[in-house]
Amino acid sequence: MDKRRMTALLAGVMLLLPSPLLAQAAQQSAPTATSDPVVVTARPIPREAEIKDQILGVTGRPQSDMPLMRFREPVCIGTAGLPVAASEEILRRMMATVQSLGMPMAPDGCRPNILILFADNPQEQLLGLRTRSPQIFGDLTRPAVSRIVKAPGPVYAWNAAVRVSRDGDLVIQQEGPSTNWPEMKVGAASRLLSPVRQDIAASVVVIERKALLNKTLVQIADYAVMRSMAATKPVADAAMPTILTLFDKDATAPTEFTEFDRGVLGGLYQSPRHAGATQQIANMARGVREASTTP
Q1: Which H or E run contains 199?
Q2: How far apart, in whole angstroms, are the C-alpha atoms of residue 67 and residue 195?
Q3: How many domains does the chain have?
Q4: What's the whole-model pTM score?
Q5: Which residues constitute the domain of residue 51?
Q6: Of 4-8, 35-39, 71-75, 215-219, which range is least confident?
Q7: How confident is the model at residue 203 (pLDDT cuts 50, 70, 90)?
Q8: How does the average pLDDT of the chain come out, rounded?
Q9: Residue 137, φ and ψ in degrees, nearest 5
Q10: How far is residue 137 from each of residues 1, 141, 181, 215, measured CA to CA in Å?
Q11: Phi and psi (nearest 5°) for 202?
Q12: According to the 3-state scheme, what is the secondary structure of 35-68?
């Protein structure tokens, strides 16, 4: 996705905004405690198979070793649709988490590459924008867009990514996600290093406002981080607690990020720059195990 397409995507998203956009106004503020102290108790360490299976579930069970999506550029978060005080609290929490992953934040005045939006009828609006302003979905294929807008909700999320060479050069001919590796010239060939990577250019998370009932701002912020910093999705019957179950009516959602969540994002962002999906997932599993055994 080049800069012109990125601008078009952001312009399309603006049509969804129910109120003025708040972008990183609370960048340097420390997170504020919003809940009672948590009493930590020992819990059984999950089995290796359970960890891997849940990681594969939330990452969409990759069919190749194409690297999983992640941000490379500094992150800029914008949010709209909630009162200013609530939006600032969400921004504080999200930015603290992003920085804990080792990712830098963009300076004040930046153009958001993560948008967290709250709307009353998001599906209806997205269905209309699919026809009137398809640029809102970036380079996603039509089938992918249909899956997003026809999902039951109350959350609609997507990541717009660009494929580049391991050195950051753009791949001229983009291919669909289910096709083979694109052809390109690289400085050196190796079976251990991926010749291509997928950099997230922008992430959008749209949440129906009525679904926020009985949810804390900490939960909402942590959920938004999990959906925007990686191409993740909720899974049914999760073996380990995850904030991705926040909007699952049949699950009891955790109060914040869990060991599984931190292990998944930590493993992804601590993976070597040119790691493929297999190595990234192995690093995620190791991160989950380490988080689960840390006192």
Answers
A1: strand 196-208
A2: 10
A3: 1
A4: 0.82
A5: 3-30+42-178+188-293
A6: 35-39
A7: very high
A8: 82
A9: -100, 10
A10: 11, 9, 23, 28
A11: -160, 150
A12: CCCCCCCCCCCCCHHHHHHHHHHHCCCCCCCCCC
SS3 258: coil
273, 274, 265: which is closest to 55 by C-alpha? 265
139 within a domain of the structure (yes/no): yes
Q: Is residue 183 part of a domain?
A: no
Q: Tell me the three-class secondary structure of 200-246, residue by residue.
A: EEEEEEEEEHHHHCCCCHHHHHHHHHHHHCCCCCCCCCCCCCCHHHC
Do 206 and 13 form a contact (C-beta atoms < 8 A)? Answer: no
Q: Are 265 and 230 in contact (CB under 8 A)?
A: yes
R_g of the chain computed on alpha carbons? 19
How far apart are the C-alpha atoms of 60 and 226, rounded to whole Å?
14
Q: Determine contact, residues 257/101, Cβ cutoff 8 Å.
A: no
Q: What residues have CB less than 8 Å from 265, skipping those under 6 apart?
A: 101, 225, 226, 229, 230
Examine residue 50 and state whether it is found in any structural domain, yes or no. yes
Contact status, residue 160 vs residue 1, Cβ threshold 8 Å: yes
Segment (H or E) for 198: strand 196-208
> Does residue 137 sit within a domain?
yes
Judge whether residue 92 has pLDDT over 60: yes
C-beta atoms surrounding 110 within 10 Å: 16
| Closest of 66, 269, 275 to residue 163, by C-alpha | 66
Q: Which two tokens stand for residue 43?
A: 């819990």
Q: Which stretches within 59-141 are classed as H helix?
A: 84-100, 122-132
Closest CA to 56 of 290, 225, 294, 288: 288
Q: What is the DSSP letter of 15?
A: G
Question: Which run of H or of E encompasses 277?
Answer: helix 277-293
Q: Are 85 and 219 in contact (CB under 8 A)?
A: no
- Taking only the tens place, the pLDDT of each residue in 234-287 is 988 888 999 999 999 888 999 999 999 999 999 999 998 889 999 999 999 999
